[in-house]
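Ops channel
N.P.: pipeline sanity check, posting one input/output pair.
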């Protein structure tokens, strides 16, 4: 599969961009609060990603975008967000930015959000609407796309 069609590729690219920017900006988190916030955000992001991954496994539905879902997952972390993996990735990037301590490391985050929203979330939701119909419509009204 083409890596450009996989969300983890874009997340990894954003992480690498953050490290590159952080290295050039030479910020460095200053104080325990920045480190605590950074590690807390990393933990929350990982919790969301792993929780969603486990839900995909439990419900035996494909995790890869654009593959035909076998089940609409609405429990677990999917009660918080319709896109907990993407939300978790963004939260992890916020955590890394906190650890870098350089404001410029925030720059890849809005770009990743735009790529995820238009490149993945919208097409995935069209598939879910076709496949799950009223069940997805009701879920979409109950739970936000991000937070």
């Amino acid at each position: 599969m083409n890596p450009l069609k996989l969300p983890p590729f874009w997340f990894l690219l954003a992480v690498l961009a953050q490290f590159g920017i952080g290295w050039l900006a030479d910020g460095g988190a200053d104080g325990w609060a920045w480190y605590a916030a950074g590690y807390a955000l990393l933990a929350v992001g990982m919790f969301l990603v792993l929780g969603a991954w486990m839900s995909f496994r439990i419900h035996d539905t494909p995790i890869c975008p654009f593959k035909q879902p076998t089940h609409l997952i609405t429990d677990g972390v999917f009660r918080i967000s319709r896109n907990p993996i993407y939300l978790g990735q963004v939260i992890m990037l916020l955590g890394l930015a906190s650890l870098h301590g350089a404001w410029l490391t925030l720059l890849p985050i809005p770009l990743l959000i735009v790529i995820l929203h238009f490149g993945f979330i919208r097409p995935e939701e069209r598939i879910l609407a076709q496949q799950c119909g009223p069940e997805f419509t009701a879920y979409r009204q109950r739970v936000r796309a991000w937070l």
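N.P.: looks fine end to end. The first helix runs from residue 7 to 25.
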